[in-house]
């Protein structure tokens, strides 16, 4: 097994991998190991027509789907476009939601007044977006109250889960853009994150995990799952988190 690539499933049409937090999907550096797509290409056979079907944010871990033929890519993209793929996430958020289960309906668009160019926000003229959530566990730690949520986006807007959870007052732990002070993100990309900001973030990557994908494939119900990373699980269990702020998160 390749230690640089955590394979969940592989056949002649599909390749499903678990993306680690802190790894970009598309290359930004010359290093062959610096992106998920580069690692997958090194694994695949030379004649494989590899397609990344969907992507995850750099700091989000979890299930990521690739097609190995042009035809399977076409079929998978059609399923995503028709919203026939169920995406289930887990998130650790600040605070305890007032209701254990809910649905957030709020349009999303660019946050034009923020120095972070990629930041989104809820705005009346934004794209329609809806996210369902359910509280799995309430957590009490020395740092405060937190909740583990099961989250299911019903649309696919950029940063949708992060924007919606922050909108209802429960930002994701470790989120450098939507956690309350977006200067943390600017300092992060410029490699000058302060020790106070690190302590405030609690985790080096946002606590958002793509736990499951479900869809019908070749006439059969198909499901792919991945467990969260150790730091995520340790935080939920209330133990001390062992992840260090290493080059992986820079």
Features:
alpha+beta, globular, 250 residues, two-stranded antiparallel sheet
Describe this structure in words.
This protein is an alpha+beta fold and 250 residues long. Helix content is 20%, strand content 31%. The chain contains 6 helices and 12 strands. The two termini are 26 Å apart.
Strand content: 25-35%
What does the main sheet amount to?
10 strands, mixed
Order of helices and strands: EEHEEHEEEEEEHHHEEH
Structural class: alpha+beta
What shape does the CA trace take?
A: globular
Poorly predicted regions: none
First-to-last CA distance = 26 Å
C-alpha Rg (nearest Å): 18 Å
Mean pLDDT: 91
Number of strands: 12
- Helix count from the secondary structure assignment: 6
Give the structure's gist in a few sentences.
By secondary structure, this protein is of the alpha+beta class.
Task: Indicate the topology.
Elements: E1 6-10, E2 14-19, H1 36-43, E3 51-52, E4 61-67, H2 70-81, E5 86-94, E6 101-105, E7 108-110, E8 120-122, E9 130-141, E10 144-153, H3 160-167, H4 183-189, H5 195-201, E11 208-217, E12 220-225, H6 230-237
Parallel strand pairs: 4-11
Antiparallel strand pairs: 1-2, 2-4, 3-4, 5-10, 5-11, 6-9, 7-8, 9-10, 11-12
